[in-house]
């Protein structure tokens, strides 16, 4: 190591960086695999999901109807317990009031008293088995208790949540384990409001917004139970499904598998993905392979330096197996040194990695048996893989030939060395092309015309009944401000969850030809405020409000297409449906051009727009025309406090809300970008070492060429060309592989860029430029050397 400082540094640094990537990914994988495994008998807990085919739309949902869970428990003895979980639609944040102090609390869920007998939560105060048995009771998290009650005992205190009062019956410790259920407080499902609907409904078809969980006996077979579900559904809802013209089925999802293996509609929270884990793991392994390739290349390239040592050892009685063990031992020692450096690099990089992944990973907290096993495995794998070929190659030297100074250059060794360089750049170019593709797709998302204007729009949540009741006065007051173009209210907006949907039977169609549509409840003027485009007919107007309410409907282009109408043909037609406990017979007065109200991962689905009373409005939308946001927001806040003195003013910009849908894609882009830079850096480290060795081997040749008149440019070109040929070959192999991989990734988007040659040419030119810079540095240094010094020993 001391005699060959540069090569030792390159080997250890390259291996250390590769191992660092692997350690970080191991920590990430360990965290992702830990979801919901802390619950007792976790493998026996299942979520009942739904597959629904209604009106030509097929949906696979994590949710199910209200009566399903306990009906299954009553029907099948293998189910020992059941519970339901409800995330109130449109209530990402809820207003909590205690002693005239107002708090915004997120992640409030409704659930049954049986919830804590299935899922493990540590209670600090209260009895988990009894806590939610009574109506209007609530169990809160430790952090929420500290925020509201400070050091006081919260038990039996009364909190006002939304419009109802709830008695605190328990406090649970802040969960330290990962779960697909993220909750800050639980209210009893037997309470007023939404809970009344959940507990009273007997509809096995509609109301698919409830998470149903069951726990099986340890000896029960989930597949056998799942096979019984079609008969169960036919018994409870067969006639109703036939009447409504829909088909439906249920299936079971093992709770510990949900985070990594479930990516269906209405997930409780954003899940991870096993494909993402495979992708990161593959990249980390490839980066480690690149580092191992450097080790193998430099070891075989410098084999002549150790040839006499091998010859002497063999003459003195060393067996080939002894030499193999020696060289593998050296490799494992270097790998051990690299892993020590890698642990230090991991500590330095963890904060950046946590920011990329949105995690709070810790090396010390992550030191489980799994992690330690992985570290030992990585050390041995790296050492054995990196040292395997050099060990077998060097130990095969013939001692007589070596000691006579006869060194035969093995074609196989040269071919392997060049092949390994090509392999490195195949990986690097693939990663680079992938990074460029992802960035291009994100840019496309940023600039695509979504069918509405997201600029200069402010969203203000109407979280309480008071805010909804005073909305009209609030709207009228802020509409007079010079920087406000218009204000309108809605039940949802693009980028937020659209909670309502139902089947509508179009005029002239049978019930089994119904079209499932999302429902957006809007105030007249919302269409203009959001700049939705009208293809045919008219929009709602304030002058026709009473006439339009309960009688008129707007539909989007997707709804007209699915029914089979052209936009002009739809005007005047009727839609019949049942929703919110009443029958609807609505006349279509307008058709809107499709707009992307969900992310570009999804196609635009049918939607209808209806007008209703203010209590249905969840958000106010302001269309502003200002560059001085501070003054405008201060004026709006003053008006808000005038009508909602007890409710803090809050707002978001529509543009930001739309972009949050692509947070996971941005993280993927950044992560792959960093890993690409690391892969290229390690590849160039090896290229630098090989270039230095090549220049060293050809020192006298370069000296002779310079004496005979060769220029610095010609010598630099000569030394660089061989390496550039390998990089170019790597490009040619990488392009089709990258095209295939990126094409598969883009299939996740309903709207995406077209892959073109430019992406791969840019990636290739970048790889060639970096390689050329790396090699040229050594080549120019060799070309500028004094030929007298290189020839003085001749």
Automatic annotation (TrEMBL):
Superkingdom per UniProt: Bacteria
Keywords of the record: Cell membrane, Membrane, Transmembrane, Transmembrane helix
Xref: InterPro entries: ABC3_permease_C, MacB_PCD, Macrolide_Exporter_MacB
Membrane topology: Multi-pass membrane protein
Coiled-coil residue windows: none
Location of this chain's protein in the cell: Cell membrane
Domain MacB-like periplasmic core, chain residue ranges per copy: 8-230, 472-611
Claim: Transmembrane is one of the keywords in the record: yes
Main location: membrane
Every ABC3 transporter permease C-terminal domain range: 282-397, 676-783
Pfam families documented for this protein: FtsX, MacB_PCD
Listed transmembrane segments: 6-29, 276-296, 332-353, 365-386, 420-439, 672-695, 707-735, 755-775
PANTHER family reported in the protein's UniProt record: ABC-TYPE MACROLIDE FAMILY EXPORT SYSTEM PERMEASE COMPONENT 2, MEMBRANE COMPONENT OF TRANSPORTER-RELATED
Name of the protein in question: ABC transporter permease
Originating organism: Rhodocytophaga aerolata
